[in-house]
Amino acid sequence: MKSIYKSTSLELFTPGTSAMELPFVGRVVAGFPSPADDFVYESIDINKLIVKHPDATFYARVKGQSMTGDFMEDDLLVIDRSMEWSDNKIALCFVENEFTLKRLKIVDGKCYLIPSNKEFPVLEVNDINEVIIWGIVTYSIKKH
Q1: Could you say which DSSP state residue 36 is in?
Q2: Is residue 18 over pLDDT 80?
Q3: How much helix, strand and coil, in percent to the nearest 5, is found in the chain?
Q4: Which of 26, 36, 69, 99 could be disulfide-bonded to 10 (CB atoms 3.0-4.6 Å)?
Q5: 64 — alpha (psi -120 to 50), left (phi > 0) or beta?
Q6: Which one is catalytic: 7, 66, 82, 86?
Q7: Is 66 assigned a catalytic role?
Q8: Residues 82-124 pLDDT 10s
Q9: Is there a catalytic annotation at residue 52?
């Protein structure tokens, strides 16, 4: 992955063209194991699975605490610029010369940028502050 932008709050990456297929074992039961599921079904490439629009998709790492509850520091996000934004989607926004992740909330015709962490302020989108929606988060990958 090649870094395309770095700010104090986010680092963006392009997906690149490399492919790596790994074994895919199917669904994993979170209850009692099934002995019939002890074999590999196929191989998958995670990029093909989670990237629907390669020319409009990039990766980003989460920095900061405003979206704690949805994401943690260093979670890897898949962001699609071709998706339409709408109520309750999590978007990568460009506000006051910084990238920030926020949940979009539309109430009575007004748009708000809502942090998951209640310690951070809600931002109303209006004529005073310019907000650009760069893309919609489609997946997050967490380290356990």
Answers
A1: G
A2: no
A3: 10, 45, 50
A4: 99
A5: left
A6: 66
A7: yes
A8: 999 999 999 999 998 889 999 999 999 899 999 999 999 999 9
A9: no
Confidence of residue 139 (pLDDT cuts 50, 70, 90): very high
Which pair of structure tokens corresponds to residue 132?
């650009």
Contacts of 144 (CB under 8 A, 6+ apart): none
Contact present, 130 and 113 (Cβ < 8 Å): no
Distances (CA, A) of 13 to 68, 70, 97, 129: 21, 20, 18, 26
Contact 99, 91 (CB under 8 A): no
Q: Which residues, other chains included, contact 106 with Cβ-Cβ below 8 Å and sequence gap of 6+?
A: 86, 87, 112
Tens digits of per-residue pLDDT, 39-82? 556 777 888 889 999 889 999 999 999 999 999 999 999 999 99
Q: How far apart are CA 19 and CA 141, in angstroms?
A: 18
